[in-house]
Specification:
The mean pLDDT is 95. The chain has a seven-stranded mixed sheet, with helices on both faces. β5, α8 and β6 form a beta-alpha-beta unit. The radius of gyration is 21 Å and the shape is globular. It has 14 helices and 13 strands. It has two domains: 135 residues, Aspartate Aminotransferase, domain 1, CATH 3.90.1150; 226 residues, 3-Layer(aba) Sandwich (Aspartate Aminotransferase, domain 2). The longest helix is centred in the first third of the chain and has 16 residues. It is α/β, with parallel strands linked by helices and 390 residues long. α5 packs across α9.
Length: 390
């Protein structure tokens, strides 16, 4: 007999994964070329050649103990290299002791939340957001407190945050560039958020989930969170920047300006071990050391973003053009769950905004083949006509 709690969560499931399975069903029926699946944000670029070169070099010239246990925080050389890069980018003097290598950003988030939350402690989430945050918080026995940004151009409303803070508020999670909206918080937003949280009568951690930080468009450079937020923990993954989602490699970095920097850094390392990760993948820590300043060629993502945006808006839909990440978050003219059914009739797979606590919208992932985007135009136009948008 499995846990009742897990059984309930399995029944509710993930809308994204459900749409992914629906895509498999439709492809079997109609052929892959006739199904337009924008449901899942799986980076489709190959890693840079330098990654393959590093893999080959390390495999052909292994050092003794390269695949053995190391400190739960990761290899000292990898942590030192990450700290040096963060210091160069931010001007903030961060130490390797503040870095814990993790199993992707998800591993970092879970270790951080387990480190800071006592039962029933509250974590503020800014909707729409990546829904796994809720599970991560609940895994640490915390309580999510959800604030909508739909009426504020997907940006944090500081007055709403102030009103939501209670003696149990322990943290807020931010994600910029954002999944699903593609919105980037500029420096003024980060500074205003910092001031807002410092007004509270107790410490509130800012957990910044940053896997999309290099995926930006139109020449936009996101502000460096370490420069603007005091009690900050950065959770990062190379899944998107190096197109390595399956390798599960990332880190948690505690700002040296954090009030509890030493104790918190040690707690994250402890939780990294006790949550079952033990340490980040040994081999890929070494691969990352050799590729810290590399990234996949994201120019194709920008091209595909533009192409899909043009098609969707020509079909009559309203959408804020994203400045980063891998998604369009489009206004739905009808209930978003009903819209997904209308789209499915055209073999067009979308994710309802309700999957991200963004009811009334839907998400399209543009990390898909350019041909599929072009071929989907007829389907979007058919939906637009059926709904009277064109």
């Amino acid at each position: 007999m499995i846990s009742k709690n897990i059984k309930e969560k399995m029944l509710s499931g993930s809308m994204i994964r459900k749409m992914f399975e629906e895509g498999n069903r439709l492809r079997a029926l109609h052929g892959a070329e006739n199904v337009f699946d924008f449901s899942i944000g799986n980076p489709d670029l190959e890693p840079p050649q330098s990654v393959f070169s590093a893999i080959s070099e390390l495999a052909e010239n292994p050092t003794a103990g390269m695949h053995a246990y190391m400190s739960n925080s990761g290899y000292p050389s990898t942590r030192a290299a990450v700290a040096e890069k963060l210091q160069k980018e931010s001007g903030v003097s961060i130490s390797a002791e503040n870095i814990c290598m993790t199993v992707g950003a998800a591993g970092a988030l879970n270790a951080v939340l387990k480190s800071v939350l006592d039962p029933e402690d509250e974590v503020i989430l800014l909707a729409p957001f990546f829904m796994e945050y809720v599970s991560y918080i609940q895994n640490a026995q915390g309580k999510p407190v959800i604030l909508s940004t739909l009426e504020n151009d997907f940006l944090p409303n500081m007055e709403d945050i102030k009103k939501a803070i209670t003696p149990k508020t322990k943290a807020i999670i931010i994600n910029s560039p954002n999944n699903p909206t593609g919105v980037i918080y500029d420096a003024s937003v980060l500074s205003e958020l910092n001031a807002c949280l410092l007004e509270a009568d107790h410490l509130i951690h800012v957990i910044s989930d940053e896997p999309y930080i290099e995926l930006t468009y139109d020449g936009v450079t996101p502000p460096v969170t370490l420069q603007h937020l005091k009690n900050l923990i950065v959770c990062y993954s190379w899944s998107k920047s190096l197109s390595l989602p399956g390798e599960r490699i990332g880190y948690a970095a505690v700002s040296p300006n954090h009030e509890d920097v030493l104790e918190l850094s040690n707690a994250i390392v402890y939780c990294n071990r006790t949550l079952g990760s033990v340490n980040a993948p040994a081999f890929f820590q070494k691969v990352i050391e050799k590729n810290l300043y590399e990234k996949a060629d994201i120019s194709s993502y920008e091209k595909r973003r533009n192409l899909l945006y043009d098609i969707v808006t020509r079909a009559g839909f309203s959408c804020q053009k994203p400045k980063g990440a891998l998604y369009l978050f489009v206004k739905s003219p009808i209930d978003d769950l009903e819209l997904s059914k209308v789209c499915a009739k055209q073999n067009l797979l979308i994710v309802p905004g309700s999957a991200f606590m963004g009811k009334g919208y839907f998400r399209l992932a543009f990390c898909v083949p350019e041909k599929m985007i072009k071929d989907s135009e007829k389907a979007f136009m058919a939906v637009g006509k059926e709904l009277g948008l064109i």
